[in-house]
Amino acid sequence: MLDDIGRAAREASRMLAVTRSEQRNAALKAIAEALRANKDAIIAANEIDLENGKAAGLSAGLLDRLALNESRIEGMASGCEEVAGLLDPLGVVDYKYTNPAGIDIKRVRVPLGVIGIIYEARPNVTVDAAALCLKSGNAVILRGGKEAINSNITLSDIMRKAICDVGFDCNCIQLITDTSRRCAIELMQLSNHLDVLIPRGGAGLIKSVVENSKVPIIETGTGNCHAFIDETADVQMAAEIIYNAKCSRPSVCNALETLLVHEKAAEKALPVVAEKLRQKKVKIFGCETTRSILGQEVEPATEKEYETEFLDYVLAIKVVKDINEALDHIQRYSSGHSECIITQNKENAENFLHRVDSAAVYVNASTRFTDGNEFGFGAEIGISTQKLHARGPMGISQLTSMKYIIHGDGNIR
Amino acid sequence: MLDDIGRAAREASRMLAVTRSEQRNAALKAIAEALRANKDAIIAANEIDLENGKAAGLSAGLLDRLALNESRIEGMASGCEEVAGLLDPLGVVDYKYTNPAGIDIKRVRVPLGVIGIIYEARPNVTVDAAALCLKSGNAVILRGGKEAINSNITLSDIMRKAICDVGFDCNCIQLITDTSRRCAIELMQLSNHLDVLIPRGGAGLIKSVVENSKVPIIETGTGNCHAFIDETADVQMAAEIIYNAKCSRPSVCNALETLLVHEKAAEKALPVVAEKLRQKKVKIFGCETTRSILGQEVEPATEKEYETEFLDYVLAIKVVKDINEALDHIQRYSSGHSECIITQNKENAENFLHRVDSAAVYVNASTRFTDGNEFGFGAEIGISTQKLHARGPMGISQLTSMKYIIHGDGNIR
Predict the structure, then answer these.
(1) Which of A369, A387, A404 sits opposite B413 (nearest CB)?
(2) CB contact under 8 A, B248 and A412
(3) What's the rounded Cα separation, in Å, for the pair A63 and A70?
(4) Closest alpha carbon to B400 in B112, B21, B106, B130
(5) Cβ count within 10 A of residue A90
């Protein structure tokens, strides 16, 4: 069955690759209108998922991610309209060369082809991902979690009908309705039909995809993020940044997980930071020096805490003897997502920027900024923590490949 | 053992990532000098490989690939100097954005980190690949074929000593001396130490890497390339291009393998093309129409011939009823490397360029131009036939990743 879906996606992608920008934007607007027009059907399908979820004992957090209401549907619809408003990433020429033999070489942005998205309980991913793939000229195969299956089927049917009505092959968007693990593994083997597979979800999902996929993948969303307060830091600024990075939305991948503090700044900075974090009752694990400064109610930090992406009101703190120890700690424990230095010293700032090997490296700003919208890309499909193809927030440009177009006049080599 | 090699490469890559352009160029020049100074040792080691190869019954072609002599050593040395002369791909800023919150975002080119190269009998790959990785700030782990092991050990030792003498960690370049298949598979599992694995070699090697690798890979070098002579083609130009694409170097991936001819051009064009190909005694497999025009000494072409990358003086020919049938044939059989249309009709040319989904698409020029040097990149590490990360000839820019560097002044989100 997946083979048929893959074949249909490949076929649809050929047609989609040669559509004009206006046609793809019209399709996105048609989806937005259709979502609004069918909101009752979406809410009804979502209610079945919510009831099943409650019966299955899903947590309140998971049920919240699963829930759709009028305002969330409007959010998905206006999201599609925003994507329609972005500049077309296709057809952009980023390299030109006339070689000594006289041929004219141009490198042009083209779609990747067929993109697989494998995700969990959030049904809005169904619409967001489809919109970004459509905009960038890619056919998409969606595979969401079983918790959201009724919502996803309804959303997918609405989108397919909407694009079909404006002249697109409905198989530009396909949903896999078999939510078994066996079928997910099968999707990961579909290398003849899929150009890339992007997992969106928790660490368990990402790990399973990394281990099982024969399709090229882009790893996203694991963020064990660090901040380093150096000896010259403005303590007040440090406290504001740490509070924002840890507490503004602890469940997301760009939230802070470990704070490193220069030993010469620790006595002064730690009490101010801790005082601020108390507003959200942040639980702190600390090294021995941290505990001697903040008191023994701080629990001892071990290897385990430094390795953990808490995604909660929890922070690990370690006092280090200098910037080199901070860099070594980051090198060892970071997932390569976002790190930040708080400093008034330019040399330390440049040293940190140069030597930290992560997607986003900050001086005196919160790691929470690592986001496609904040970076000026419009919407994002995820945040890549790998180095191949795309790194950091992935917008529609990161969903493209390139092709060389060469004009000659009988040239031979 | 591979784990130690991987760890040492990662450590070396941290140092390498912060070297200046002049330092890396000096290291490349030191390698060039050392290769020249040690040419006798290289030739002596190579002779052992050649003797072992003869004893093992290697083909003349394979022995030729394996052989090093003074001029080939000079070629490797001057190759390193040419790479040193290329513009530094690192540090290039390709995106800038000041967001509404006031942070300054820059996207900067950085090394990928650690690159694995897995290849076959050609010992010059040992030097070429190491030079390109060094230039682009990447540590490299080389794993060549057992046929060339003595040459490779000598070349690797010379390069390691040369870069060490100019202050580099010698583990920027490492060679795996265990040439067993088990060890190759182990390398493909080294995902915690390798950022990318690039196979260079025949279809069997590529297939094994695709099937076994847990490390992100870049597929290179499979070229089932097509040319299409449309009804408006200049027959003389067509014959020259086909002859060049097929015969100038049939063993390489950008050589032509299948010729498609519009039925209205076939009677006129095929005899001229065939006459030209007779100079190199090219063996032709043809469809029924081709055989009715060129005679029954042309053997019948089947599915198998259309699928085959001959890499030899062999060509498949098919007469098609129009450009759409040509596009369908290419879509079905092409490996996505290089295709060409020969036409005097602009609309057909644009249609072909737009709709063929391959790395390089030509109008009125030979597919043999698909090459890093011809495309203006200087040297190349291979030709990617996948769409993720890099497509087509891969120069040093394609051996880089990116990193976002953000300057703030206490900004929070």
Answers:
(1) A369
(2) yes
(3) 16
(4) B112
(5) 23
In a 10 Å sphere around its CB, with 0-12 CB exposed, 13-18 middle and 19+ buried, how is residue A63 labelled? middle
Q: Report CA-CA distances (Å) from B78 to B73, B131, B140.
A: 9, 11, 20
Query: How far off is chain A from B160, nearest CA to CA, in Å?
Result: 24
CB-CB under 8 Å, B369 with A411:
yes
Cβ-count burial of B355 within 10 angstroms (0-12 exposed, 13-18 middle, 19+ buried)? middle
ipTM confidence score: 0.94
- For A317, residues 6+ apart whose C-beta sits below 8 A from its C-beta are A258, A259, A260, A261, A270, A284, A285, A286, A287, A290, A294, A298, A301
Contact B403 A110 (CB under 8 A): no
Residue B210 confidence class, pLDDT cut points 50, 70, 90: confident
The C-alpha of A373 sits at a distance from chain B's nearest C-alpha, in angstroms, of 9
How distant, in Å, are the alpha carbons of A60, B316, B336, B382 from that of B256? 61, 9, 13, 18
- Nearest Cα residue in chain A from B404: A360
pLDDT, tens digit, for every residue of B235-269?
999 999 999 999 999 999 999 999 999 999 999 99
Report how far Cα A129 is from the mean position of its chain's Cα atoms: 11
DSSP code per residue over B10-72: HHHHHHHHT--HHHHHHHHHHHHHHHHHTHHHHHHHHHHHHHHHHHTT--HHHHHHH---HHH
Q: Is B171 exposed, middle or buried (0-12, 13-18, 19+ CB in 10 A)?
A: buried
The values of phi and psi at residue A348, to 5°, are: -60, -40
% of chain A at pLDDT higher than 90 = 92
Provide, as residue numbers in chain A, all residues whose Cβ is less than 8 Å from the Cβ of B331. 14
Nearest to A388 among B355, B370, B389 (CB): B389
Mean pLDDT of B322-344: 97
Which residues on A lie below 8 Å from B105 (Cβ)?
375-376
pTM for this predicted structure: 0.93
Q: How confident is the model at residue B61 (pLDDT cuts 50, 70, 90)?
A: confident
Residue A410 has its nearest CB partner, among B364, B389, B403, at B364
pLDDT tens, position by position, A287-346: 999 999 999 989 999 999 999 999 999 999 999 999 999 999 999 999 999 999 999 999
DSSP string for A63-114: HHHH---HHHHHHHHHHHHHHHHSPP-TT-EEEEEE-TT--EEEEEEEE-SE
Cβ-Cβ pairs closer than 8 A, A with B, add up to 209
